Automatic annotation (TrEMBL), chain B:
GO cellular component, one term: chromosome, centromeric region
This protein's UniProt keywords: Centromere, Chromosome, Nucleus
Disordered as annotated region, ranges: 1-24
Pfam families membership: CENP-L
Name used for this protein in its record: Centromere protein L
Compartments where located: Chromosome, Centromere; Nucleus
Ranges that cross the membrane: none
Domain of life the protein comes from: Eukaryota
InterPro entries listed in its UniProt record: CENP-L
Predominant place of localization: nucleus
Family note: Belongs to the CENP-L/IML3 family.
Species this protein is from: Kryptolebias marmoratus (Mangrove killifish)
Compositionally biased intervals (Polar residues): 1-12
Length: 727, 360
């Protein structure tokens, strides 16, 4: 009952919305209305309607010119601009009451094309006439077909639902049955499903055989009350009710188009027949999402219905419906089915019931285990697995987190994975793993990943580093959300059953960063500092260098030498530029942390971190700017004789802005542009103060913003000037 | 670190309930991804088969269990499967479940024909009953027997219905820690033992899956489980003659070599006695535990004996089947228990195997 009241209210409010503007200046409108009425009195169409509303019963049709003229008038209006609600009421009443016999009835019905809405009362009255008058069966069918066609334009359905039983009584009429079933399908609500109705339909089934219309109505009954009826629809009987009346529909759309309002009239209901995509016989079909079905609950049913009516999730088809019913949604029989529908996924986001989530996780875990871990014959159907994982990933992406059963699965799967099966999907799942306590992270994650990393191709290495970067990003984002809510000062332990404190979280993040640092150092060495891998590694450090400012995590970890030097000595300028950018961001983070440390002792950065950072910066500045590659205290200090013996001229300047392999082509280009007439190439001449600053400007103009920022923050103009004087 | 460990023993339900009031959206999210049971089991190291178990005692199970049920269990060979915990399963609702199952089977058999649930089905009739006495520990939910009777198509109306399918859902000595970690509305009957037509099996499975939102998977018997069974059965020889210990091995040669290895019961018994540590002889009471090491050395002696005679090392092969007069078990999860006295021991082992298969 509550449901029908609700729907009628909403219908009314939507009607109110339409006329809201007219309500504003009621008075003047009323005057205008009167005026209009007076004009209309002479309108032949209004007169025609009047004729049909007052015409007396028993008036002959044959040879009745009045009747003919008026009906033609109505028909013309109907086909050109549609009939108003009042006109529909009048004409329907005229036709169904058989005031002028059965002859004009069908003709009138055919022209009942609504301009806007169909008043519910008119339909109900007409339905009542069905049992009173002696309407020929073909006309009755025509009437029901008309109702089906205009069903979405009926302004409210509560009264129609109230006479559900009355309408139901017509199913025994053999010719009407298919159409009545369709109408009932559109009107059925949980309250209307009753044992005696089910029995009646089953009785009909035994009489008529397997009729799709009966089955589809019964399948809807099953959605509402699976404890009353059960059935399985064969896949060939997929098509729902085929009661399209094309001329009507065509006329209707034509009128609607002309009126500029295209109300979606979905006459054929979307029927949730289980999609058996994997219909070919498979031994294991764990990867099939279960269908959304409702729970059959015998014992608990009586009490539930008395307290409140629950809406099965399977019956909701749009987000609007979901919102309207969100307080009384009944979970489906199988939680796994939630992953299959986008509406259900929305609902999953608000489920807080532990059992429900556990059910989902049992299903998901079982599917993953059976398919990827337990399958002895290794006959994984890759296309299905791919589809399944993509669906899982899109669900996780929507919810912005993983499911615990898929995490548990991954911890096991990583030990047996060959690193190539469904790599993008598995890596993507992996990146959704939530924070792992640092005590377990090594065993669960690092040990299997290390093995995979060092035994796989370059592309896997890149993929893994990217995946770990995404994981770190998600962890940091997770933290930053909490940090914002909890004012940064409290531990996170009140949120999860994992009990991670802020320091515990920091430990985990640090472990992860060190782990990637280790992988990257060795990986770069193994792959000969491959530019692609280097690029992914630099991506990772772009995340790392900003942990404090971007994500509010008081942690600064420097890249290891194995990453820093390959990036610096890279032959492509992009890598060097990105390294410079990363160092610049480190500096910004560190200085801002230091400032905060002074203010409120937010967190302490170890002296060693500063030392590491300074070390890197001094090295970069000395190499690039000062042409002093080897200086006391640097990491690289080969013996003097060795350097002389190498035969490299001016070895100390090999990695300055001019001679660095990444920039030498720019230097040459600049040289040519600067001194086009010179025959001899003398790169050292760029070192002079004027061309030097031109050269830098030239470099910056090539888009090396990282270098620009780096130089700006690390070399003050005066220092530069002093430098030049020294030179 | 300590805190994480502490969380292992904490019941997440309680802690969660308290927090729910105070926390907003962010809390809920983490709640979903760090689900109590799941996270604990996901982070703890992999569960393993117990390394020592009680020696089988001949249970006088016949006194507790309906002899008809016992006869059914003993005389057939069964297929094994595992089931994840059943949601909203009530032992008190079995009658209505049976009605649903009957209707479901009939509806699936006659595609495109709706079936009234409460009506009498003339094609198939399912029944579900509790097997009284078929549980061991206090935490074990009671065993449920599912049977499907059918009338042959061209039979006289007064012909009795024939039993065409039967299956058990059971849990014997289930790991109490696991059973307790589940919320109250879950019933854990992890071991599913069934026999009958393949299509009926899959119908019953899919009905149980849909009704109690659980999942099925095949339960194979690992090498270790088979060796355990061999040892456990051998250990019973003193009380009930095992007649022979027969093992079927497959060796990975080309073409694959099948080896049937049958041992005289007295020899096996003596060998088993020689590998039994300490507790041998004093038979009574507390010392009757069998250790995995004993089982391993038992198997090793059997293998080395074989090697001495045939110069074939069975360690390279796969143990496919173990059988004695007490029962037989196959690698692919088919088992026959021939002596009702040792049903509990065998089912305890199988329950353990089934619980190991749980995804979380």
């Amino acid at each position: 009952m509550a449901a029908s009241l609700n729907s009628s209210e909403s219908d009314r409010s939507s009607l109110g919305g339409q006329s809201a503007s007219s309500r504003s200046n009621n008075r003047s409108l009323r005057v205008a209305e009167k005026e209009r009425r007076r004009n209309e009195a002479e309108d032949p169409f209004v007169l025609a309607l009047k004729y049909f509303s007052v015409v007396e019963a028993g008036t002959p049709v044959v040879g009745n010119d009045d009747f003919e003229n008026n009906l033609v008038l109505v028909e013309r209006t109907a086909y050109s601009q549609g009939l108003s609600p009042e006109a529909i009421s009048i004409m329907l009443e005229f036709a169904m009451s058989l005031r002028m016999g059965t002859a004009p009835c069908a003709r009138v019905l055919k022209c009942l094309i609504p301009a806007s809405v169909v008043p519910q009362e008119a339909v109900v009255r007409a339905a009542v006439w069905l049992s009173v008058g002696k309407i020929p069966i073909s006309t009755q069918v025509l009437f029901i077909k008309w109702v089906l066609t205009v069903f979405d334009m009926i302004d409210a359905k509560d009264q129609l639902r109230a006479i559900y039983g009355f309408i139901f009584s017509f199913v025994t009429e053999e010719n009407l049955c298919p159409f009545i079933c369709h109408l009932l399908y559109l009107l059925t609500q949980k309250e209307s499903v009753r044992v005696y109705r089910v029995r009646k339909l089953l009785e009909l089934q035994s009489k008529l055989g397997r009729q799709p219309f009966l089955l589809h109505l019964l399948s809807l009954y099953k959605v509402f009350c699976p404890e009353l009826v059960t059935l399985s629809i064969p896949s060939r009987m997929r098509g729902a009710f085929r009661n399209h009346v094309s001329p009507w529909k065509a006329a209707l759309t034509a009128v609607q188009k002309r009126n500029g309002s295209l109300a979606g009239s979905s006459v054929s209901p979307a029927l949730a027949v289980r999609d058996k995509s994997g219909s070919r016989k498979r031994k294991h079909c764990h990867l099939q999402l279960p269908a959304l079905t409702s729970v059959a609950s015998d014992g608990a049913r009586s009490e539930q219905t008395s307290s409140r009516t629950l809406v099965p999730l399977a019956h909701l088809q749009s987000f609007d419906q979901l919102l309207k019913n969100v307080h009384r949604i009944e979970l489906p029989a199988q939680m796994g089915s939630l992953l299959g529908s986008s509406v259900a996924l929305q609902y999953l986001d608000c489920i807080q019931d532990e059992s429900a989530l556990l059910r989902l996780n049992f299903w998901l875990g079982c599917a993953l285990h059976e398919e990827f871990l337990f399958c002895g014959d290794g006959a994984t159907q890759t296309s299905e697995a791919l589809q399944f994982l993509s669906r899982l990933l899109s669900a996780q992406h929507f919810l912005q987190e993983g499911f615990s059963s898929s995490d548990a699965f991954l911890y096991k799967f990583l030990n047996v994975w060959d690193g190539s099966l469904l790599r993008p999907q598995i890596l993507c799942l992996l990146s959704n793993i939530p924070v792992i306590p640092s005590s377990q992270i090594r065993k669960l994650l690092f040990e299997p990943l290390t093995q995979l990393f060092f035994t796989s191709s370059l592309f896997f290495k890149c993929g893994l580093v990217e995946c770990l970067n995404n994981m770190l990003l998600k962890w940091l984002t997770w933290h930053s959300v909490y940090a914002l809510e909890d004012d940064l000062d409290i531990s996170l332990n009140s949120h999860t059953s994992l009990n991670i404190t802020l320091s515990g979280f920091k430990d985990s993040v640090m472990e992860l960063i060190h782990f990637v640092g280790h992988l990257a150092s060795v990986g770069l060495q193994l792959e000969g500092c491959h530019a692609l891998l280097l690029s992914f590694v630099l991506d990772f450090y772009e995340t790392v260098c900003d942990t404090f400012l971007k994500f509010g995590l008081p942690l600064v970890v420097m890249p290891p030498a194995g990453v820093f030097y390959p990036a610096f000595f890279a032959t492509d300028p992009v890598s060097v530029d990105r390294l410079a950018h990363i160092m610049h961001r480190y500096k910004v983070n560190l200085t801002s942390a230091k400032r905060q440390e002074k203010q409120k002792e937010a967190f302490h950065i170890s002296r060693q971190t500063f030392q590491e950072f300074n070390h890197c910066v001094v090295f970069m500045v000395n190499c690039l700017w000062n042409s002093r590659m080897f200086y006391p205290g640097s990491d690289v200090q080969p013996g003097e004789e060795l350097l002389l013996g190498s035969g490299v001229p001016r070895y100390w300047a090999s990695f300055d802005f001019i001679h660095h392999p990444a920039f030498v082509s720019y230097a040459l280009d600049f040289h040519q542009k600067c001194w086009p007439s010179r025959k001899e190439m003398d790169l050292s001449s760029i070192k002079d103060s004027k061309p030097w600053s031109w050269y830098l400007d030239y470099l910056f103009s090539q888009g090396f913003d990282g270098l620009k920022d780096f130089l700006k923050s690390n070399i003050s103009r005066q220092a530069a000037a002093v430098d030049e004087q020294q030179r | 670190m300590e805190q994480t460990n502490a969380s292992v023993t904490r019941t997440p339900l309680d802690s969660v309930a308290v927090k729910r009031k105070s926390k907003s959206r962010s809390y809920r999210q983490s709640y979903r991804s760090c689900l109590g049971v799941a996270s604990r089991l996901g982070l703890t190291p992999a569960r393993r088969l117990t390394t020592n178990r009680k020696a089988p005692e001949s249970h006088n199970i016949t006194r507790q269990v309906n002899p008809e049920h016992l006869a059914l269990l003993v005389k057939n060979e069964w297929q094994l499967a595992y089931v994840t915990p059943l949601h909203q399963f009530r032992h008190t609702q079995l009658r209505s479940y049976a009605r649903h199952l009957s209707a479901f089977v009939v509806a699936e058999k006659q595609q495109g024909l709706a079936v009234e649930v409460s009506g009498l089905q003339n094609g198939f009739k399912a029944s579900m009953t509790v097997v009284q006495g078929m549980s061991e520990a206090d935490d074990d939910p009671e065993t449920v027997l599912i049977q499907i009777h059918s009338k042959p198509l061209f039979s006289r109306p007064d012909d009795p219905q024939k039993l065409v399918w039967s299956g058990w859902l059971t849990c014997i000595n289930g790991n109490p820690e696991y059973l307790h970690s589940l919320p109250k509305d879950f019933t854990c009957l992890p071991l599913f033992v069934y026999k009958g037509a393949e299509n009926l099996s899959s119908l019953v499975k899919s009905w149980v899956q849909r009704t109690f939102d659980c999942c099925f998977g095949p339960l194979e018997l690992s090498q270790t489980s088979l060796q355990w069974l061999a040892a456990l059965w051998t250990n019973c020889h003193a009380e009930s003659n095992i007649q022979h210990l027969r093992m079927l091995w497959t060796l990975p040669s080309a073409p694959p070599l099948q080896v049937t290895y049958a041992v005289d019961p007295h020899d096996v018994w003596e060998l088993w006695g020689s590998v039994r540590k300490g507790s041998w002889g004093d038979g009574a009471g507390e010392a009757r535990w069998i250790d995995l090491e004993e089982v391993a050395s038992f198997m090793q002696s059997l293998k080395s004996h074989f090697y001495r005679h045939f110069k074939l090392d069975l360690s390279a092969g796969i143990l496919n089947q173990v059988s004695t007069a007490l029962g037989s078990a196959r690698f692919n999860g088919r088992i026959k228990i021939s002596n009702s006295a040792y049903v509990i021991t065998t089912l305890t082992l199988l329950t353990e195997c089934a619980l190991l298969k749980m995804p979380i």
